[in-house]
Known about the structure:
The complex is a heterotrimer.
Chain A: H1 14-29, H2 37-59, H3 68-84, H4 90-112, H5 117-136, H6 140-143, E1 149-150, E2 156-158, E3 163-165, H7 170-192, H8 194-204, H9 206-211, H10 216-242, E4 244-245, H11 252-265, H12 272-290, H13 297-311, H14 315-328, H15 356-364, E5 370-381, E6 384-395, E7 399-403, H16 410-417, E8 425-430, E9 433-434, H17 440-446, E10 448-451, H18 463-476, H19 493-503, H20 519-532, E11 537-541, H21 549-562, E12 567-571, H22 575-581, E13 584-589, E14 592-597, H23 599-604, H24 606-612
Parallel strand pairs in A: 7-12, 7-13, 10-11, 11-12
Antiparallel strand pairs in A: 1-4, 2-3, 5-6, 5-8, 8-9, 13-14
Chain B: H1 9-26, E1 58-65, H2 72-91, H3 94-99, E2 111-118, H4 123-137, E3 141-143, H5 148-161, E4 164-166, H6 191-206, E5 211-217, H7 220-237, E6 240-247, H8 255-262, E7 268-271, H9 275-287, E8 295-298, H10 305-309, H11 311-314, E9 318-321, H12 334-347, H13 353-372, H14 377-385, E10 390-392, E11 395-400, E12 405-407, E13 410-415, E14 428-434
Parallel strand pairs in B: 1-2, 1-3, 3-4, 5-6, 5-7, 7-8, 8-9
Antiparallel strand pairs in B: 9-13, 10-11, 11-12, 13-14
Helix pairs in contact in B: 2-13, 4-5, 6-7, 13-14
Chain C: H1 14-45, H2 52-70, H3 73-94, H4 104-126, E1 142-144, E2 149-151, H5 152-174, H6 176-186, H7 188-193, H8 198-220, H9 230-245, H10 250-270, H11 275-289
Antiparallel strand pairs in C: 1-2
Amino acid sequence: MTMARRSSSLQYWWPDVLTAIGLLVAPYVLPSLGFSQDTMNRILVLGLFGIGFDMLFGYMGLLSFGQSAFFGTGGFVTAYLLTSTGLSSVVLGLLIGTIAAAIVGFLVGLIALRRTGIYFAMITVAIAEVFFFLENSPLSAFTGGENGLPGVPAPTFYLGFTTIKVGSGWSMYGFLAACFLIGMVIARRIMASPIGHIMVAIRDNPLRAAAVGHDVKRYKLLVFVIAAAYGGLAGGLLGVMQGYMPPDAFTFDTSGQLVMQTVIGGLGTLFGPLVGAAIWLYLRDFLQGTLGLGASWKLALGVIFVLLVCFLRRGVIGAFVDLARSLRGKRTADDEEPGVIPEQVVTGLEQSRPMVAARSLSAASDAADPILQTRALSKRYGGLVANDSIDFTVRRGELRGIIGPNGAGKSTFFKMLTCEIQPSSGSIVFNGSDITGFGVTRVCQLGLTKSYQVNQLFSGLSVRENLTIAVVAELRGPFRLDMLHRVENVPGLDERVEEVLTLVNLSRRADVPVSGLAYGEKRRLEIGLALATSPSLLLLDEPLAGMSPQERAETVQLLKSIRQGRTMVVIDHDMDAIFELAEQITVLAEGAVLVEGTPQQIKNNVTVQEAYLGGVHEA
Amino acid sequence: MGFEIGRTGIGRISRREALMLGAGAAGSALLAPYMMLPAQAADHPALGTYPEGSSGDSVFVGIAVPRTGTYAAQGEDEIKGYELAIEHLNNGSELMSKISSNIKKGVLGKQVKYGIADNEAKPNTAVQAQSRFISENKAVMITGSVSSAVAVAINKLAQKEKVIYLPCISGSNDTTGKDCTRYSFRECFYAQTAAQAIAPILVKNIGKGKKIAFLTPDYTYGHTVRQSMEEALGKQGEWTVATNQISPLGTTDFSTYLLNVANSGADVIVNINFGRDAVLSIKQAKQFGILDKMTLVMPYNTPFIAEQVDPDTMAGVYAGTDYWWTLANDEKYPLAKMFNDAFSAKYGSNPEWGANAAYMQIAMWADAVERAGSFYPPDVIAAYEKGVEIQSTVGPVKFRPEDHQLIRPVIIVKGKKAADMKGKDDFYDIVEVVDGGPLMQAPDAFGCKLGDAA
Amino acid sequence: MVATPELGTDLLSWANFISQMFNGLVLGVLLALISSGLTIIYGTLGVLNLAHGAMFMLGGYAGYAAYQATGSYTIAVIAGTLFVGIVGIVMERGIIRHFYSRPQEDQILVTFGVGIVFVELVRHFFGSLALNVPAPGWASGITSLGFMIYPTYRLAVVGIVAIALVVLYIVLYRTRLGLIVRAGIEDAGMVDALGIDVYGVFMIVFGIGAMAAGFAGIVNAPVAPITPDIGEAILVQTFVVVVIGGVGSFPGAVLGGLIAGEILSLTSMINPSYSQVMLFAVMTLVLVVSPRGLLGSQGRE
């Protein structure tokens, strides 16, 4: 459909067919280019291993140097079952190995995902090492320690009319190719699902992904587990392929090689690891065999890797894609074929929650009672008091303005309301329930969100994709395992996105990437992201900041138009705008409520004027 | 590869058809295995690399040994033995024909070509290297090992790929014990015979009731040698174990292990480490003052250790070995002299036991193939399993058909002081050449199940 | 495969405990020094240098080459340290500098790649076989400490490395450069604001961090022979040290190093094969209890 135009190929079936054809043709083509059967088999195993890693790093941005832990776990569980327990079904062994790796991935993820960035990278390295040592010594009764586990059988398939015994020849290639194909099809489905889009959003801006209502931690853990499962399956296949499960599967080298192959092939492509492994193993054979470079082949690969990271960050596939794009010129948007969507996936979303305005409608029904109330809300940083015992009440349907000189604690106050930061004391009641300490995701799911003072967009995505991320959060809830459901099949998604696009007047710019937007448009998108989660209470933190007079006028109009049936609280320094918009105004000064009243009352209030002496001019 | 291999049209088409069929049926999982192709040669079905590997006027042998890492020095020594043996085979040599009158120039008239790969003493690298030799070069035989972990892994690979494998240095009981295969044949001595041969000598010279500290590398070789030594010394001399320090292969700093040994109250250190591990552990044991208090024993001696550590440290150390060049001084071993001479003519030094094992493996393989009259693996295996006695550098030897272990003597040596050495590589005195046959365990005692030949 | 049952129990004696504690100290100071290098680079530049293990290795080889040429241990140590310092500065100027504005993951990838290039270059020129640098004459031989016999050079290592740590401390806490570095660790933005030539500081810090690793590399060479891949295991242990001590904290690195050394040594009293596992277990524990490490600052994340 219309979503995901940039990652267009993900929603089609033809890449799957092309992959299948490619895998079928490869044995006729690659051998004449110097790829041996054994090399091709290894490429498939590493390619499969890399699919999971690419989802983790390429799509979600988590650089793990610990994937060998799962490769080894899956491999050894499979190998142990097949060599030592009398389990005869290789496929079952692989399946159990995959599940074991996923479970281990879950446990490791619980620890490693406590941190991000370099901490995450370091922890994954350390964890992978733990597994290597565990395999090598304490568990050597099961894993053979330094020996590994020899004698892993190859599968046999009973098909009724014939029995196929997979051996070491092309039949093994066929088996691995089938596994790779299945893995690839599943991965492409995941990437085309809402979860795939959320993954990209998390890489792009984890803070906003959480703020629009996605449970970022659980999605990270989920993808970590998926990557572990792919590693486990690949590890199991390695043992089956060579009839031997090596202890090296657990080494840091294995992880490092995977990282390098994925980067060489191209991150965020799913096929990158396959291409990277092909280049890697081909060069290894070529440099070692043909050129007789001996051990120096790795030096050449290291140099290639560094050059790619420096100059061609998107790897070989990325380079080809860029080249093809520049040759073909810009594609028009007209190549959409609605008929392509093959099946209507029946989702569990049919009786999903009501759409956009629904939350606000019910809210508007009872106009008098408070939707939000804070009691003695305070925030202290060390000795510094940012907010001091604020009592604040907003009624349903109200449009409240908050003003105050710089440093009055307005933004801190908003951050506490959306649970981005924890108050030092006091409580927040929203819609009748105490939400203090809930966290930004949960609060957003309850219908309270904010647009940020500084744009927090998914800057790598288009306008439409940005809004989709926010809308699916509202439609699907904070976390849902609809991995195999296409995002465009989320009921009501398109209408909602279109609706918001119209509201913030970006319909004609829907497929422009964020980087191509003008500042005013970005601000509107920022508000749109908040709106897309259909909040019953919308907080706007300086929506007019940095705008030209004309943009201001437009945005004020926008705010007026969206206030219908919503409760809104607006912070801004633009007094005229606030006075024009708000029914009630709260003035904050030095972290406390100075005064509250109608615009007229505030205008004439002496204390406010005093507090603003000097302050008002800098707005 | 693949599609150029089939020499006849039949093979080519049938494989292609199989491929298409498989593709149509289940997305590609159903490719007919290459091994199921109909017979091409007249009398034997295709099996492993047969008949492709031997259809030309030369055959290919895949050699994978460690050239880097802990066991690199021993790997290079093996290469020397292999190259000398293959040169002798291709040119015809007196030594070869003395070993077996069956051996002629070439093997079944074909020249032997070979490829050498570095297996890093890692099973995985070895499996990859040998797989490449098999699939790309159609190797009729693969060989080489310093680590038993490698030998065991390649044992299984050989059985799976139906290609003969000849481990070179491999001291684990498992190689011809629980991990034996029909396709693998071991020349060298191993844990059980080493222990049985050296134990009486140790008990006689050191005394009864001693306490042992084992230094054990953490893999199949180390564990089986430790076990065999513990049993033999316990039974024959009532020796007990004070401590067993298990270190990973490739350890460079033994300090924590050695401190444990120093504080264990042991009388004797039985050092099972091999290669660089052995060298470093002995050097560091000396630095920690342990060798002054405890007697060092090397049941499975590392080639070149005396020169790498220094002769005086090794002086008086009892060690079990596979071959020591001064055997040639005894008229009972005429082939040892010929081998030493040929080796030093080519390389300028006397051979160590890795080179000897490599040379003998190639010679005995040529003998078996000649007797089989074919490279068809089951025929070659049958020839091996006849257990025909042949001459070797350490006297007459023969393979035991039940577990494919060579029945051969163990040489017990004792280190010499530098001052007593009569030449640059005169590091040991031979204490005794112990007949291996009577020492060996029953063929099934270690759980050997050979598997099928075809 | 299974260890003998009585393994370990006999070794839990006071003599062995003290011996192993002492041995842990030797290991610990070395880890402390290498980790300090990693941690000040990260703290100041915000770059996690995955080539740090390779720097350790380069120090060993540069020292080895210098030793071969001159036969002097002192010259080997100086040459090894300076060479790695220069490599660090060149690396910062040539590569790292262009990555400050790129995502953290890119920085990790490029240092990882550079590390591999270093290792393979050394393998290319020196081969894979282990090489030895002998201990200097004054420190070779055996010293009896009463409760144990200990190689003299290993004793000397404690002293040599301790001096290096003190020098590093003085640079960090008693010089203007150190002030800037520590300020940068606390608040990267502030140093910018003060109008200090950050890039100049970055280059010097990267050089100093690399030198710490290189120095450790050559000092350790007589203890354990050098191979092209020795840096890898060290790098992983360094990560553990830094995570335990707190990323970016010099005192944390020292404390973490000493803790790690003792864990490795004392665990091996019971069963050496568990020592690494125990190290990582402690790291995990620290992460769960105190995610920023024992002495970590709020500065970076």
